[in-house]
Amino acid sequence: MLDHAYLALSTIGIDIASIAVSGVIVALAYLVYGMTGFGSSIVAIPMLTQLIPLKTATPIMLILDLMAGLLVGIRNLKDVQIGELRKIGPWLCIGLVLGVTVLVSAPEKPLELILGVCLLVYSTWRIMSSGEFRALGAGWALPLGLGGGCLTAVFGTGGPVYTIYLAGRLRDADQRRATVSTLITATAVARLFLFSASGLYKNPVVLPLAGWLLPCGALGLAAGALLRSRVPAARVSTLLWAVLILAGANLIVRSSIGMLA
Predict the structure, then answer these.
(1) Residues 6 or more apart from 155 whose CB is under 8 A from it?
(2) Which of 15, 17, 58, 259 is 20 to 30 A from 168, alpha carbon to alpha carbon?
(3) CB count, 10 Å around CB of 209?
(4) Is 230 helix (H, G, I), strand (E, B) or coil?
């Protein structure tokens, strides 16, 4: 599987070292997911796009998120809050359709610039905030559902948006984690259909590389589950947002240079 991924990636200038580094990135991303219940794609995508194209990284992370969401969500079905899923679900579906349309049709560098700006703004806000989410009314399902759906389809990074909504609606941490994980799984299934219909999985790189990265993600997920009760969540979050500020700034610079070149 790794040989197939290497042969396919070599045609677009990606070497074996980059594939190995991608495995480390994915393991770290799912370590965060295992500890927090979200964050895999928002950690992995900005760093993976330093190595592979965005339109390759996004469908790969979709496969990995689908598997991780099934593992986490199935264990905690009793805590899933169906009522909140019904509120945000329709708006999220509309956002997914809009986002896939943008991903398929838009040039790569402007998308990377948008991702960098979103990461920089959101991560700076999170690291400067108190860490507590305010209570939100059900009306927030519309803007956060649309925005989260678009970000999920294009970048696979809608998890923090769902978390803002669900953290403002659910006070119980177990209910919040299970509902976020279920929402990630549901959006992954929807994106799998939309990505397949749009031809993103015709890319010969995607499936072989996803097969190589899958055990890396499983290892990180298991490590995160073990560390969840041993490492303070606040410390993990602060480190996460600091890393994403750097990743966002780097994406802005790199994509701006690419657009001007």
Answers:
(1) 41, 42, 45, 54, 58, 111, 115, 118
(2) 58
(3) 29
(4) coil
Q: Identify whether the C-beta of residue 87 lies closer than 8 Å to the C-beta of residue 141.
A: yes
Domain around 222: 2-260
Per the structure, the count of domains in the chain is 1
Query: Residue-wise pLDDT tens for the chain (261 aa)?
Result: 555 555 555 555 566 777 889 999 999 889 888 887 666 788 888 888 888 888 888 899 988 888 876 776 555 677 788 888 899 989 999 999 999 999 988 888 899 899 889 888 888 887 887 656 678 888 899 999 999 899 888 887 777 787 788 888 887 777 887 787 778 778 888 888 998 988 888 888 888 888 889 999 999 988 888 887 777 767 777 777 887 888 888 889 888 887 886
CA distance 26 to 47: 9
d(CA 54, CA 61): 10
Q: Which residues contact 190 (CB under 8 A, 6 or more apart)?
A: 93, 96
Name the strand (E) or helix (H) holding 259: helix 233-260
- Which pair of structure tokens corresponds to residue 185? 């799984």
Residues 6+ apart with CB under 8 A from 259: 109, 110, 113
The DSSP symbol for 202 reads G
**137: helix, strand or coil:** coil
